[in-house]
Write a structure and sequence with these properties.
alpha/beta; 358 residues; Dehydroquinate synthase-like, alpha domain; binds zinc ion; binds nicotinamide-adenine-dinucleotide; Rossmann fold
């Protein structure tokens, strides 16, 4: 057996108000390469009272994180623009949700690797280490702050640039940054963590490492979404931020499963956002994920979340086939969920049947 030899986040600065330390944290790295920082920031913050510790020749890009997940073309264009404007930056800082985390991670790799990011969608295809990069999440749940992948949609697939250099050198986890997330989005992205832990635990890769982080993350999720004090409040903002991190670390030694495979198909074909797509799929996977789906339903009711029913009635056969083709290519997820004999159970028809439940 080949054990994962994984790269963890270099440094973590956690706690309410920790964002105010970002400027100081960047200071010692400012002279690297051409001596300037690039900030990629969710444009939600553009017209808010939000200070970015940019100075000198730093570049600040506000990027719309609200309507589509990051594309390979966005990364390629941004990389070309940055390099042709001021040369190799000292570092990249991503501020926002999972989309902005992934943009920052992908850019940090693509400024040193030639050609389109499409060439590097997959495991260990990146050839050279990227540059210093920092993640500052403003929503909790994806685990993108610690994962070794930067998920991108390309012309043919939704797949991450996955390698040890993808992992952030530094993250700043300030729960205060998440207070403004609208309730629906808070729920969908938070459920990403809950589902990560359930899928991590339901499959052949699960082990004591995944369990230790996953159990802790699940406990925090249950307090945040089902506990006496459930809901968006400062205490839960702190808990959910850690739940997200631990859920991500649980996955490092395990794998996601059926829900994520279906979710990737939905995102690819309809552009459905990751957290929401997970909720749409998980809602109908009781036969696979059992009581966790009942628990999920309790959370949906508790927060008055409206999940559509009978969506698939509006989908064409081509759309269902296209999603299923995306999903079936995620072999590592099916393998984790059903074991090495997964192909005996799972084929295109089976996956189409899962989509038709939605
Ligand atoms: P997101 O980045 O897609 O943002 C969702 C919405 O929340 C946007 O409209 C954004 O403007 C808004 N927003 C962000 N912070 C806010 C704040 N503090 N206040 C108010 N609004 C705010 O959200 P997400 O769910 O965190 O990320 C989803 C993305 O993450 C997908 O692209 C998915 O592919 C990716 N992802 C990556 C990994 C990984 O390991 N790399 C894992 C899971 C998901
Ligand atoms: Zn996820």
């Amino acid at each position: 057996m080949n054990h994962i030899n994984f790269n963890n986040i270099g440094k973590i600065c956690y706690g309410r108000g920790s964002y105010s330390q970002l400027g100081e944290i960047l200071e010692p790295r400012r002279n690297d390469n051409k001596g300037y920082m690039v900030f990629v920031v969710d444009d939600y913050f553009e017209d808010k009272d939000f200070s970015i510790p940019a100075k000198g020749n730093d570049l600040v890009y506000y990027i719309d994180g609200s309507h589509e997940e990051p594309k390979t073309s966005l990364i390629d264009d941004l990389r070309d623009e940055i390099l042709s404007t001021q040369g190799l930056p000292a570092g990249i800082v991503g501020i926002g949700g999972g989309s902005l985390m992934d943009i920052a991670k992908a850019l940090s790799l693509m400024v040193t690797n030639e050609g389109s990011s499409v060439l590097y969608q997959g495991l260990n295809l990146i050839k050279k280490p990227g540059i210093y990069h920092v993640g500052v999440p403003t929503i909790s749940g994806t685990g993108a702050e610690c994962s070794m992948t930067a998920v991108l949609s390309g012309p043919e697939k939704k797949l991450g640039l996955k390698c040890e250099w993808t992992v952030f050198n530094q993250v700043v986890l300030d729960p205060d940054l998440t207070t403004t997330v609208p309730t629906d989005q808070w729920f969908y992205t938070g459920m990403d963590t809950f589902i990560h832990c359930i899928e991590s635990a339901t499959g052949i890769k699960y082990n004591a490492f995944s369990k230790a982080y996953g159990d802790q993350s699940l406990e925090l999720c249950r307090e945040v979404f089902l506990g006496e004090n459930a809901g968006q409040n400062p205490e839960n903002d702190e808990k959910l931020m850690l739940a997200s991190l631990f859920g991500g670390l649980s996955l490092t030694y395990s794998e996601v499963g059926v829900c994520h495979a279906l979710s990737y198909g939905l995102s690819y074909v309809f552009g459905t956002r990751h957290g929401y797509a997970n909720c749409l799929a998980f809602n109908h996977l009781k036969d696979i994920y059992g009581e966790a789906v009942d628990e999920f339903h309790d959370m949906v009711v508790r927060f008055n979340i409206n999940l559509p029913v009978n969506m698939s009635a509006g989908w064409t056969d081509e759309e269902i086939t296209a999603m299923s083709e995306i999903a079936i290519r995620l072999e590592h997820m099916w393998n984790h969920a059903f074991g090495p004999g997964w192909k005996d159970k799972v084929d295109l028809e089976y996956i189409k049947g899962l989509y038709r439940r939605l």
